[in-house]
Every structure is written in structure tokens, then in C-alpha cells.
Design brief:
The chain has 383 residues and is an alpha/beta fold. It is 39% helix and 22% strand.
Length: 383
């Protein structure tokens, strides 16, 4: 039997109620759960992913599809907003009520926790969300930006302040880029922005490096006990690599000086050419000693699943609470042996997982450990 002692010491968090109002293809929906894994099955387009997307809004950001909030509104009504409400059960906090939604005329969603207005970052105190969706299937072969976003999402689950650092860095970089494009020669303004970028950029790189080091340990431990292949990760970024041999303050000063020196080069390019916004994460299949993008489609999916499971274990260890893991249409991509192992690892980590699929038989090995719902044309039935 697989067992992870560290995650077993973490507070278990589970979703016990979910209510949607004017969200996607649900005008009104309320579901009650009992703390077990949750399985939604039904035909493609029935509304399974919409429920997972609503749950993903219990964390910072725009959810697992990264869609504009306006796209989430139920289109057959006059209302111009939506609401998602959830009750969580935690062995640390007891029952926690989180509500989020978009009001008419608003651009950003509102968040309330136990009836009190909060920020998106505040939700991390009560819940961590991790997900794997079909759109991520091409992660190893797709654009660098997708892998960097995936990496930063992993960091965010263990370090909630990471999103704020990335946002502030991006804002400072956009301001610097505007100065470059406008031909500004305001050295003081450049210096202020570059100092801010150097400080934030070094902190971003350090957080990424810490995440990879911690995750590598868990990956190696997990791979010893499961049929998921072992992935090795390497950060391909100038700051991340510099931090391997230099103190953070030295890396920060070097980056600031580089930004100053490169102003003319960046002006010609119309953008900042160096920094953590260019970092890539290189993933290799450790057992075969080849890059993940050269692996078969099946092995790539197994590598990605192994990464998500290791990240779930790490999140539980670092945050002191188990994450809720959302797995959209993932079981169909695994053979029976790995599918069965997936359910066992989820239990070993101690998480509540929410899974979707077109066929209930894909989840036979889950048995009584799961609570099953059939979805047909946005009608959800407990079975």
C-alpha cells in the first residue's frame, strides 16, 4: 500500500457543497458531497468541465481555462454576472464558506469568505487547487510561455505570494517597455523600474528554484512506489542559473546592471529581452534519459500525471493542508494499471480529487471511494 507520512499529517480539505448561479451552461445548480472523491461522467459537451472550472475559481486567477470572466456568464438570461458558492470542510478550520462571482458592470470578480469581503490571495489560507486538463496535453511540445505559466502555478500552490510578485514584475516590465518604445531618456524613471524588476525578478527566480528542488525530491520518492515515470526538471533561465552559484543580492544587482546596460538593445527590440519572463522549464524522462517532448504521447501524459501527483504531495507538505485536485478527462489517457495506481496515490496523499470522464467504467477501480454523478445536457444526477 502506498503511504505518504508527511501528507497524512496535513489538514484534509474537501468540497462539501457547490452552488452555481448563471455560470456557463448552468442557470442554477447545487450539489452536495460527502468528502469522498467526486466523479462526473457523461458525453462530451454535457457540462462536466464547467463544474471543474467553477471549482478552480476557489483559487487565485481566472480558473483552469484562463477565460475572461464575461465568457463564464450563462448566456440565456438577462443577467450579466455569475456566482459560485462552495462550502469546504477542513480539519484545520472546520466549515468554510467561499463565494465568488462577477457583478453587473464589474471587470474583476468579488470574493467573500465566511461572509467577509476578501482578496483572491486570501483563499489560499483555506484551499489550494491543482488541476490537469486536456489543454495541457501539449505542455512539453508547446510554447515556452505555457510551461512557464505551469511552473508559476505550481509555485503559487506552495507560495501564495508568488502571484503578486509575478504581477508586479510584469507591470514594471510593461512600464519599462513603454519607455523604450516611446524613446524616453528619463534615467531616473528607468532606474526605478529596473531596480523594482531586479528585486522582484530575483525573488521569482528563487521561488521557482526552491519549488523545483522540493518537487524533485517528491518525484523521486513517488516514482519508487508507482508506475508513473520519473521526471527530471531543469530551469533554463539566466537568473535561476545564476542563483546556483551566487547570493541572491549579487544576482539582483547583476540583473539590475544588465537591464541598465541593455536599454539600447531592448529599445531596438521594443521589449525587455532578458529576465525571468523568458525562463523555460525543461522536463526529461529520467528512466529513458530523453527530453519529454521526444517521448510518446502516452508517456508524456504519464509524466505529466506524475508531476501533478508529486505536486499534490508537496503542496500538502508545505502548506499543511491537502489540495483539491481537479482531473478533467485524464483517466481515459491512462492504461488500466496506471489508472488504478492513480486512485491509490490520490488516497495516499489524502486529497479529495474531482474527476471527469465520458464512461463510468473508467472509474471502476475507484469503487466506493468515489461519489458518482451522471451529467446529461447540463442535468446532474447522483447515481
Amino acid at each position: 500500500m502506498i503511504s505518504f507520512q508527511n501528507s497524512r499529517q496535513s489538514a484534509r480539505v474537501s468540497v462539501h457543497r457547490l452552488s452555481l448561479t448563471n455560470f456557463r451552461n448552468y442557470q442554477s445548480l447545487t450539489l452536495d458531497f460527502d468528502g469522498r472523491h467526486i466523479v462526473f461522467y457523461g458525453n462530451n459537451g454535457a457540462g462536466k468541465t464547467s463544474i471543474l472550472e467553477a471549482m478552480s475559481l476557489l483559487s487565485a486567477g481566472r480558473g483552469l481555462k484562463r477565460a475572461p470572466y464575461s465568457d463564464m456568464i450563462f448566456r440565456l438570461q438577462q443577467e450579466t454576472g455569475f456566482a459560485v458558492y462552495a462550502k469546504l470542510q477542513s480539519s484545520l478550520y472546520g466549515e468554510v464558506a467561499i463565494g465568488t462571482g462577477l457583478n453587473e458592470g464589474d471587470i474583476n470578480r468579488k470574493i467573500r469568505i465566511n461572509g467577509v469581503s476578501k482578496t483572491a490571495d486570501d483563499m489560499a489560507e483555506y484551499c489550494r487547487m491543482i488541476w490537469l486538463i486536456p489543454a495541457m496535453d501539449g505542455l512539453f511540445t508547446g510554447p515556452t510561455a505555457d510551461r512557464r505559466r505551469f511552473l508559476d502555478r505550481m509555485v503559487l500552490a506552495v507560495d501564495p505570494s508568488h502571484a503578486g510578485r509575478v504581477a508586479r514584475y510584469d507591470k514594471a516590465m510593461r512600464s519599462r517597455n513603454r519607455l523604450l518604445i516611446d524613446g524616453s531618456v528619463d534615467r531616473n524613471f528607468f532606474a526605478a523600474l529596473e531596480s523594482q524588476m531586479a528585486e522582484l525578478g530575483t525573488a521569482i527566480a528563487a521561488a521557482r528554484a526552491d519549488l523545483v528542488a522540493l518537487l524533485t525530491r517528491v518525484i523521486y520518492y513517488l516514482a519508487e512506489q508507482t508506475p508513473f515515470p520519473k521526471a527530471s526538471l531543469e530551469l533554463d533561465g539566466s537568473l535561476e542559473q545564476a542563483l546556483q552559484s551566487k547570493a541572491a543580492l549579487d544576482v539582483e544587482e547583476d540583473f539590475r546592471a544588465q537591464l541598465e546596460f541593455n536599454r539600447e538593445q531592448d529599445r531596438l527590440a521594443g521589449r525587455t529581452l532578458h529576465g525571468p519572463h523568458r525562463t523555460d522549464v525543461l522536463v526529461n524522462h529520467h528512466g529513458k534519459n530523453i527530453a519529454a517532448y521526444l517521448c510518446s504521447t502516452g508517456e508524456q501524459k504519464a509524466l505529466l500525471m506524475g508531476l501533478i501527483l508529486a505536486h499534490g504531495e508537496l503542496t500538502a507538505e508545505v502548506s499543511g493542508m491537502t489540495p483539491v485536485i481537479l482531473l478533467d478527462e485524464m483517466a481515459a489517457h491512462l492504461d488500466q494499471r496506471r489508472r488504478s495506481a492513480l486512485f491509490d496515490v490520490l488516497d495516499a496523499i489524502g486529497v479529495q480529487a474531482v474527476l471527469t470522464g465520458t464512461d463510468r467504467q473508467l472509474f471502476d477501480d475507484l469503487g466506493g471511494r468515489g461519489q458518482f454523478f451522471e451529467i446529461y445536457e447540463s442535468k446532474v444526477t447522483s447515481v
